[in-house]
Amino acid sequence: MCLKCDDCGKLFTSVAMAQFHSGKAGHENFSESPDVPQELTAEEKATRLVELKGKLAEKRKTEEEEQRQAARRIELERRKAGQMAAEAKQELKEREMLKAADQLRKDREDEKIIRARIRAEMEEEKQRKRLQQESKGQVAVEAKPVVIESLHSTVGSDKARLHIKLPNGFSLKQSFDADQRLGNVLDAIIKEHPDLSMSSTSSFMVPFPRTVFELRNNEGKTLDELGLVPSATLIFEP
Which CATH architecture fits 159-237? Predict the structure, then answer.
């Protein structure tokens, strides 16, 4: 007796073979049959073996192609993600550069206004002295030094609002207590930009009127003592 698959009509000489067929083909209907499966000749067996090998090779080829396609999709997605990350980084860098350039232009405009005001005050002082000399009929004497009010007056303020320009193109705006020291300003810069290089000759410079504070001589002085209250623009020179 044999087992017959009622779904496709194939005959099996053992339960194990019928179970294997059921798991592979998904057929579930079997019955006993008096028929005996016809024995294959050597030539038919060889032909069947070639067919099976061909199907197996085709299956492997299909699986390899699917794997190549999947790997290609993954690589394309990886490259796309890397390109997007690079573009985002470049866009951020460009925005920072534009921001720094805008701030630099604004600072230059502020410096021009300050210079113009100082020149006007000096010219006004010269005119006053000349009028005094003419009214008294006296010859010109040595001009009295012009006293210009400090741009960083500390009267009525206990804070120093500092705009610090860095050599890497970035800038830092921060408020400090007037009794804090120049070394505290350096600590704030290092906290925001730990990779910034420094040396034993590092210093801060006030653009106008030009004043240089070397760290090794002024690190322990307060911002009030250095005339940086209530506000000032500093350029850090490493």
Answer: Roll (3.10)
Question: Where is 143: in which H helix or E strand?
Answer: none
Closest CA to 217 of 183, 190, 188: 183
Residue whose entry in the numeric block shows the structure tokens 């049959």: 33
**Residue 204 amino acid letter:** F
Tokens of 118: 């100082």
- Helix/strand/coil (H/E/C) assignment for every residue in 1-38: CEEEECCCCCEECCHHHHHHHHHHHCCCCEEEECCCCC
- Nearest partner of 210 among 231, 233, 181, judged by Cα: 233
Interacting residues of 115 by C-beta distance below 8 A, sequence separation 6+: 208
With left for phi above 0 and alpha for psi between -120 and 50, is residue 9 left, alpha or beta? Answer: left
Over residues 55-103, the pLDDT tens digits come to 889 999 999 999 999 999 999 999 999 999 999 999 999 999 999 988 9
Rg, the chain, Cα only: 45
Rounded to two decimals, the pTM is 0.35
Beta strand segments in the chain, E:
2-5, 11-12, 30-33, 159-165, 171-177, 203-206, 211-214, 231-237
